[in-house]
Design a protein that fits this description.
307 residues, alpha/beta, Rossmann fold
Length: 307
């Protein structure tokens, strides 16, 4: 089954050309089923790239997905055309005021790791978003900074600055093979990492109810389940394209920013070699399992979410 996207959204043609099933809202309305409503609160500067990445993952399941793009109400992006934002995004304040509900919500990362959460210009609104998820969203997936913000807000687990950026593809271990979110996962695997901060396992262990599902001896906890808040927090990037780390590396080199070659990413760690994608299958497994769990547990009537 397809993911429903506006035909004019750039992701529509990108995913269609990749073989992902996509459908226009008019066509979807003719099918006698209830699609899952999943929102993307997109905090990344490159909005279109991020839309493509997450739509690709959640659009690969047998279920029909009604995909909604959401932005912070007052924060204005400088990296994406205003016309694109006006056409495809709704401010959170509008979504909140409408009273509508969602089966799932993804809160992305944001390139503001160096700031304390309370100094982020939209922190107060993001706190409203996180409170709103408890009554209006069946399952929430916080990614990288978004996951760190959620685990901090709900549990007081802090983010800590690293001495050097964790940058590259790192081996991780499956710490909970019986988890319904890890069906089909190998015992260990590679996932892209790109962050200046970390959360620490002892502090997660000290927060009641949290379960670490994936982790790495090199870069720490990766995926944490929070059943009480119907949430998952992932601090690394299964959604990344094959060349996303390359784009970040090339950007920093061009800007003269000190940066190490991303570890275990380029063959022979040589940036002259095209990078290899070694995480795609596990990315599809994780997000496919998440969508399936939403489908299994979400109320049939959207208005019953949060009751």
């Amino acid at each position: 089954m397809p993911i429903t996207l506006p035909a004019t959204l750039p992701a529509f043609d990108v995913l269609k050309n990749e073989g992902v099933m996509v459908m226009t809202p008019d066509r979807a309305a003719q099918q006698d089923i209830r699609p899952l409503r999943i929102g993307l609160l997109n905090l990344m500067p490159k909005k279109i790239q991020t839309e493509n990445q997450f739509a690709r993952l959640i659009g690969a399941t047998p279920l029909q997905i009604d995909f909604h793009l959401i932005r912070m109400s007052e924060h204005q992006t400088r990296n994406t055309a205003a016309e694109h934002m006006e056409t495809f995004y709704r401010p959170f304040a509008e979504v909140e005021a409408s009273g509508e509900k969602f089966d799932g919500l993804i809160i992305t990362g944001a390139p503001i790791e160096h700031l304390p959460f309370e100094e982020v210009t939209y922190w107060d609104e993001l706190r409203r978003v996180m409170d709103w998820t408890q009554t209006n969203v069946h399952s929430t997936f916080g990614v990288c900074w978004g996951g760190m913000a959620m685990i901090y807000y709900f549990h007081g687990v802090k983010k800590h600055m690293l001495d050097a950026k964790a940058f590259g593809c790192f081996r991780h271990q499956n710490l909970n093979p019986t988890s319904r979110y890890l069906r089909g996962f190998s015992d260990d695997f590679v996932i892209p990492v790109s962050r200046w901060t970390e959360v620490r396992q002892p502090e997660i262990d000290g927060a009641p109810g949290l379960r670490t599902l994936l982790g790495s001896a090199e870069v720490g906890p990766c995926l944490v389940e929070d059943p009480c808040h119907r949430a998952l927090y992932i601090f690394n990037h299964f959604e990344y394209d094959s060349d996303t780390l390359k784009q970040e590396y090339d950007r920093d080199i061009a800007a003269g920013t000190p940066i190490n070659v991303p570890l275990n990413y380029y063959p022979d760690d040589n940036p002259a070699n095209p990078p290899k994608n070694r995480w795609r299958s596990h990315g599809h497994l994780l997000y496919g399992n998440w969508v399936n769990e939403i489908y299994q547990g979400t109320p049939f009537y959207l208005n019953d979410i949060g009751k």
